[in-house]
Amino acid sequence: MPPPSPLSLPPGTEFGAYEIRFHLGSGGMGEVYRAFDPRLGRDIALKVIRRVVVDDDSALDRLLREATLASALLRPYYLVLLAGAQLRAGRLDRAQASLDESTRVAEATGQHAYDAEHSRLQAEVHGAAGAADAAERKYREALEIPRRQGARWLELRAARGYAHHLVEHSRAVEARTLLEPIRSWFTEGRETMDFLYAEGLLKTLD
Predict the structure, then answer these.
(1) Global model pTM greater than 0.90
(2) Counting beta carbons within 10 angstroms of the beta carbon of residue 76, is it exposed (0 to 12), middle (13 to 18) or buried (19 or more)?
(3) Cα torsion through 132, 87, 98, 108, rounded to 10
(4) Among 21-25, 136-140, 147-151, 152-156, whose mean pLDDT is lowest?
(5) How far is CA 21 from the centre of its chain?
């Protein structure tokens, strides 16, 4: 199977915690993009795993071995990123397994920089599985973690996901109350997908 076109992730696409800026090149298991990291507030190089890899058990095993060999500081991030790819592919069982492993590694290493994204993705997994109450608990956790860390971009990311969840459950007033004050903080980065999504969602609630 040929590798996907670089245009498979055009500028502005959301990938996990990141927003794609533009394509940089191709690697053995995926495509490399310049992307905006809301936790750091700057652009990074991001390797995006191909769908064929996500569906290939042996390839996933290789990826997990790489995660095991990677720096302890990056392993929780790597596993959360993998869980996001698996969630988008509809592989809820694999996404949950990756999140569980990320939790184990984070607890063993004391590395909790990616806890907010972990909780947000866990909420999405619960939501996709129809566990609305569990999803809501995790969304609330995904909001509290960046508030403690002072990571406002991650708080916006969690808030837009939680607001969408609230709207889906006929709680539009709560969604607006949650999202509007967080959206109003930002005077920069208003071209990012997180901000534009929040703006768009709020307009539907007018």
Answers:
(1) no
(2) buried
(3) -60
(4) 21-25
(5) 16
Q: How far, rounded to the nearest angstrom, does the alpha carbon of residue 83 sit from its chain's CA centroid?
A: 9
Amino acid found at 34: R
Where are the alpha helices (H) located in the chain, listed in sequence order?
51-54, 57-69, 75-88, 92-109, 115-128, 132-149, 152-168, 172-183, 193-204
Single out the residue of 79, 66, 134, 144 nearest to residue 105, CA to CA. Answer: 79
Going by C-alpha positions, the residue among 64, 54, 58 that lies closest to residue 88 is: 54
Q: Which residue has the tokens 């999803």?
A: 135
For 138, what's the count of Cα atoms within 13 Å in the CB-facing half-sphere? 21
148-177 residue pLDDT tens? 888 888 899 999 999 999 999 999 999 999
Quote the mean pLDDT of the chain: 83
Sign of CA dihedral 153, 164, 80, 191: negative
Phi first, then psi, for residue 26 (nearest 5°) are: -120, 145
- Residue 107: CB atoms within 10 A of its CB come to 11
What pLDDT band is residue 73 in, cutting at 50, 70 and 90?
low
CATH code of 9-151, in short, is 1.25.40
Nearest-angstrom CA–CA distance, 131 and 165: 12
Q: What pLDDT, on a 0 to 100 scale, did the predictor assign at position 108? A: 83
